[in-house]
Amino acid sequence: MSIKLGDTAPDFQAETTLGDIKFHEFLGNSWGILFSHPADYTPVCTTELGYTSKLKSEFDQRGTKVIALSVDGVEDHQNWIRDINETQNTDVQFPIIADKDRQISELYDFIHPNASATATVRSLLIIDPEKKVRLIITYPASTGRNFNEILRVLDSLQLVDSHKVATPVNWENGEDVIIPPAISTEDARKIFPKGVTEIKPYLRYTPQPNT
């Protein structure tokens, strides 16, 4: 199965470090981030999970639940979390899914045979409150993810859902945004009271709307 943008994220039941969950019930009406790890006790993953833990307040502000997955059991996950907390100076509070039979990894296409026949790649999905997949990023096992970029995309998606805008290259929260071509400049001046800057008829900016 290959999951694409706009697809409904498949539901599943799983054992995690915080007990059994049903994925859609776990997400509720929140945004969600599901990200996979090749295995427990791996150095790159240890840094990733530690950094994600430190971003808890950032995800909370964005109404977003985080859940990780690794193809090992809960006992290994629990022992690994102790290592993560010790080495990364944090307190991991989000669940890590136990996927020893790799059923969820197969369901979400986290195993890429040409990379590894058994280990998952570093995939990450952002899922909106309607359970639609809005972002898919896949890294090789050797490269740690950039969670500052994940937060940036999350900010962009939430802004786009609230207002009729798009975000330009390297956009950061608070910067000017782009008015989509489907909106005429005349209509844009009514919709965006902070003003419209027209570079070309198809390239117009406006200050970021209040969120």
Concise description?
By secondary structure, this protein is an alpha+beta fold. The chain is 31% helix and 23% strand.
Distance between the termini: 36 Å
What would CATH call the homologous superfamily of the largest domain? Answer: Glutaredoxin
Instruction: Report helical residue fraction.
Output: 25-40%
Mean pLDDT: 91
Basic shape:
elongated
* Strand element count: 10
CATH topology of the largest domain: Glutaredoxin
**In CATH's first tier, which class of the largest domain applies?**
Alpha Beta
* Order of strands across the main sheet: 2-1-5-4-3-6-7
Compressed to H and E, one letter per element, the order equals: EEHEHHEHEHEEHEHEE
How many domains make up the 3D coordinates? 2
Number of helices: 7
Structural Rg: 19 Å
Broad structural category: alpha+beta
Mind describing the biggest β-sheet? Answer: 7 strands, mixed
Provide the β-strand percentage band: 15-25%
Low-confidence blocks of residues: 113-118
Report the CATH architecture of the largest domain. 3-Layer(aba) Sandwich
GO cellular component, one term: cytosol
InterPro entries: AhpC/TSA, Peroxiredoxin_AhpC-typ, Peroxiredoxin_C, PRX_1cys, Thioredoxin-like_sf, Thioredoxin_domain
Family: Belongs to the peroxiredoxin family. Prx6 subfamily. Belongs to the peroxiredoxin family. AhpC/Prx1 subfamily.
GO molecular function, one term: peroxiredoxin activity
